[in-house]
Amino acid sequence: MAAAAEDTVEEEVGRVVEQGKELQETAASLIAKSAHDEQSVRQKVLSLESSIRRCRSLLDRNNHLAPKLADKLEEDLQKARCIIADGDASAFLPSKPQGRFLKMFLGPINVRASRKDVQLKVKEEYNSYRDKTALLFLFFPSVLLCLRSWVWNGCMPSFPVQLYQAWLLFLYTGLALRENILRANGSDIRTWWINHHYCAMIMAVVSLTWEIKGQPNCAQKQRGVQLFLQWAMMQGVAMLLQNRYQRQRLYTRIALGKAKRMDVVWGETAGVDGQLWLLCPILFILQGFEAYVGLQLLRTAYKGVTSEWQVIFCGFLLVFMAVGNFMNTVEILMVKSRFKAKMKTEAMKVSSLGLHFIISFAIYVFIAPIRIVEPGHEVRT
């Protein structure tokens, strides 16, 4: 009986081993077939992209086309490009170089997602991270400033401020990592905003080494820190408004075929004008206040109140980031105004064509049936 049981177990194990071998062969065959099909699709995508570039070059060189036809062909090419770049075929396009920042943190791994739903999941997580960031930008500085007034008698200890700077370092590192991953997956993020987060990371690291001294003259020495916390609260408000505004504009651009679903919008299309009139002054005030904080730090170091090198470095860095933000905002508004002017010109052309059609139709309906009677002839009814 024991021998029969052993034979049964041996047969069962042998059957399991054979099933494992068959499954391995099936999986290897499927992977090989998928790789061959993927290479075929990749070649077709690259060929179509090359054809689109060739057609665009021909369109740019041919100046004898009618304006209407040229605009229509340009729009068709843009739609074809959007279909490739925003559809499932985008996974077969050559990926952008990931850069040294990602390689430094993640190593030489490929962060490009092969499926569109995974790419969109990455972007949703990035938007969620920005929303949480905006709320924390309001919460942390307000708590520190309230404790400064109510508990610490106008003189903040070093540890809470350094803890806040450590959180800023974690925050900006997370933003920079997510934005680099989004760029690797086809998102259109301006280089300046990623570089801005690099600068903010450097400033957070330097601030961690800056010992905020207390008495005597604590209020004067910590004036720059107080202004920086107030600026951070303003930045939280601006981030909340900017996140909402950008998403509404993104939906418009995607519907017009001017953007991909992976893009992070920075301008060039019409959005919600009421929000834009509210957002732009806040951004300019925020940038001016950022430069003011940097100048105050430099002024404090110049007068000898706090002469540490960290104060001078953070002052110069804040001024540099404020100037860069201002220049990019102005550039965005200029691109946006040019786009609106172009859309207005096209709308005027369409309206003039419509008016011409209405006048022609009225002439045809009301004037053409009237018969001109020559002298000496009667009109018989």
TrEMBL record:
GO terms for cellular component: membrane. Signal peptide: none annotated. It is a multi-pass membrane protein. InterPro entries: TMEM120A/B. The chain crosses the membrane at residues 133-151, 163-181, 264-289, 309-333, 353-373. Its main location: membrane. It is found in: Membrane. It comes from the Eukaryota. The keyword NADP does not apply. Keywords: Membrane, Transmembrane, Transmembrane helix. Belongs to the TMEM120 family. This is TMPIT-LIKE PROTEIN.
